[in-house]
Design goal:
This protein has 281 residues and is α/β, with parallel strands linked by helices. It has helices at 7-31, 35-43, 58-62, 90-95, 116-125, 143-152, 184-202, 212-219, 272-280, and strands spanning 76-81, 100-107, 111-112, 129-135, 167-169, 207-210, 231-234, 252-256, 265-268. Helix 6 (143-152) runs parallel beside helix 7.
């Protein structure tokens, strides 16, 4: 026979279930506001070592206000890529008018790009003039040591008309203090050691990729490298703005991180024959 429980008992059990459910919801709400959960979320803002790429701090520090107007001057479209792009559709980029490319080869002395061969050789195979870049970490090892690591892991050069000189990507530290814990004079010394060693190994002056605001903050706007080292300026705006001291013009301009097919798009300050001229030295 069915058991008929008093209405008061049924109401008491219903309130008990509601109380348990409310307690669980409150506990879940508290979990998402605990410091440990907040720190876990914040931790995702710092990339793992090796995940840095050209312009990783440009939009955050300098903003991203647009792209350059078309037809300002004779310029040649280029891209830069890293492991973030994986296997790149080089034919698509070529058909869109891209004629040169830089591929991340290395970072510090602890990382090489696992997609380097597909990216470096793939751009070459579709007809592009291509080069390699190194993401500098001046707080881990010396400039000369990192230059050697770069050359030994894809950053070399050959006079074939299709290989650009290596580029030093020196910008905001994605892993810590913006200037890697170095004084302005110490930073200049680190950069000089890298450039001198790269020149000794390859016979070429490396390209310097940077942003004016970082360069001013971390080198004191040092102008001594402008004589020999081509400038690759990063600024996501309709103009390049003020250049770092010493350089009267830029050779390359990274103007956006949201371009078609590959995010980072660039303008070479000249026609394709000038890209080839830089490749040949």
């Amino acid at each position: 026979m069915p058991v008929h429980r008093p209405a008061t008992t049924r109401r008491r059990r219903s309130r008990t279930r509601l109380g348990i459910t409310g307690t669980l919801l409150a506990a879940l709400s508290l979990l998402f506001t605990l410091p440990s959960a907040a720190h876990a979320a914040d931790a995702t803002d710092t990339p793992a070592r090796g995940e840095a790429y050209m312009g990783i701090g440009v939009a955050e520090h300098d903003g991203d206000t647009g792209t350059p107007p078309a037809g300002r001057a004779v310029q040649t479209e280029g891209v830069d890529v890293s492991s973030h792009q994986g296997n790149v559709a080089w034919s698509t980029l070529w058909n869109s008018g891209v004629r040169w490319a830089y591929t991340k080869a290395s970072e510090g002395t602890y990382y090489t790009n696992p997609y380097f061969a597909q990216q470096y050789n793939g751009s070459y195979n579709v007809g592009m003039v291509r080069g390699a870049y190194h993401f500098a970490t001046p707080d881990t090892t010396s400039g000369a040591t990192q230059a050697n690591y770069f050359v030994d892991h894809g950053g070399g050069w050959s006079k074939d008309g299709k290989t650009l000189p290596g580029a030093l990507d020196i910008e905001w530290n994605p892993y810590g203090a913006a200037c890697y814990g170095k004084s302005q004079s110490a930073m200049v010394t680190w950069i000089r050691d890298f450039l001198n060693q790269y020149k000794a190994r390859t016979g070429r002056h490396a390209v310097i990729y940077t942003a004016t605001s970082w360069w001013t903050q971390c080198t004191g706007n040092y102008g001594g490298f402008a004589v020999n080292n081509p400038l690759w300026i990063a600024r996501y705006a309709s103009t390049v703005g003020t250049l770092p001291a010493g350089w009267g013009f830029y050779t390359m301009w990274q103007y956006t991180s949201s371009g078609p097919t590959v995010g980072d798009h660039n303008k070479f300050n000249g026609a394709l024959d000038r890209v080839v001229a830089l490749a040949n030295g």
